[in-house]
Structures are given as structure tokens and as C-alpha cells.
Amino acid sequence: MKKPVLFRKRYIPSEIVELKDDIILYRDDSMLITRWTTLKPRHDIAGGISLYLIDKGCKISRIHDAFGRFLHYYCDIIHTDYSAGNDTYIFTDLLADIIVHRDNRYSVVDLDELAEALKTSLINADTVCEALCSTDRLIRCIDNGEFHSYTNLIERYVSL
Questions:
Q1: Which CATH number describes the domain made up of 5-155?
Q2: What is the dihedral of CA 122, 126, 127, 128, to 10 degrees?
Q3: 0.90 exceeded by pTM
Q4: Which residue of 12, 14, 43, 146 is surrounded by the most CB atoms within 10 Å?
């Protein structure tokens, strides 16, 4: 059976990259779980396991270093386009991100990039609204404890 094709689309920098080396660990209509290593070598992270919550507009990634040690969860706010005809996903990074630290503190980052993208017309107001609503939904999920159900799901795949 042919495997789905995954793409990451970014506004800053403007690029679309096939995630051809990502390994799909699980997939259904509402989520996708992948294992990956960085596309380019980095000194701070080596890879991770990502849970794409397609209908919730986010990707939650368990980030690890070169020794496999857990660092933090990095949550990208995304928009997903799926084409059933060619079994292709395009995950568009909507610029806002949330880092969830080991002690459950979190930081919302890159809102300046979101503002700059709107100001320079890389994105429109509807895209900003989608990004902000998805960010708010994820913050509420973290605050009310629901986030742990997602991290527990990711943890099932760590030792595989």
C-alpha cells in the first residue's frame, strides 16, 4: 500500500517541503502521529514524535535531543489541507507556537511573526483569526488538563 505524502508549508521563510523521511506511526480521520528527525542538523534538538490534531488546528511534538532525552513539547498552530485523491496532506504553519515545558509552564511564541505576516500581506485576516482561535483552544486545553491526554498518546510511541 502506498504511504500518504506529507508536506510542511511555511510563510516565513516561504517554502513547501516534503516530509519524506517522516515515519507514520498512526493515522485516522482526525489525527496523524509521526516520528521524525530534523531536516537539517541542529545542536539543540535531534527529532521527535508529532501528533497532528487535524480538526483542532495544532501539531504537538515531543522534542528530544541527540541522546533521546525529552526536552519539551513544541506545539505548532497549523492549518491542514488533505487531498484524498492522491492521499496528500499539506500542513501549513500558522506561525503562532506554544512551548510546554516539563513543569507544565507554557510560553506562547512567535506572535510577532504572525503580526508581521499580516502587516506585509503574506496572510490575510481570516488566517490570523484561525491562528488565534486555534492558539486559544490549545491554551484552554493545557489549562484544563486535557493536554495530558494528548501527551499520554504520544508517550505510547516513544519506545517503539
A1: 2.40.380.10
A2: 90
A3: yes
A4: 12
